[in-house]
Fold:
Amino acid sequence: MNYTLKLIDLRAVIQRVSSGAVFISGEKYSSINQGLLILIGIEEQDTKEDAEWLCKKIVQLRIFSDIKELMNLSVLDIKGELLVVSQFTLFASTKKGNRPSFIRAAKPEQAEPLYEHIIKQLNVLMRREIKTGVFGANMKLSLMNDGPVTIIIDTKQKE
Structure:
């Protein structure tokens, strides 16, 4: 028998920022001060369970400095803000040729409801409204990466 293991993962690029903003059509759509800018990539087989695991991981991730300058505090601990942006290009494949393939990324009709679920979960976990981009929009991001600290999390890491 030939078994094929398909890697399925909801992917997040998490950046610790002093500030971040989303611009659409030249206008500021949303912005945050100290907190996390989170880019979310969604695959076809991703589930609400994957999303909930990822959301808990994000808010509990200890990447902010304590008084000893050690990364011991979470975004919850510092009462930081979140800016969440959907980004299908996180699943770009460059194995063949020079034009990236995005075949692993979920189609919009599948990805958008899961993206909205992630936003709702983060709102609940943060106990405050989080800021977002607009799903499918052409956006410009501005950020001041603090550290710099950038973490990549795939839900396949939970296994």
Q: What stands out?
A: Helices lie at 48-60, 108-126. DSSP finds two helices and eight strands in the chain. The two ends are 24 Å apart (CA to CA).
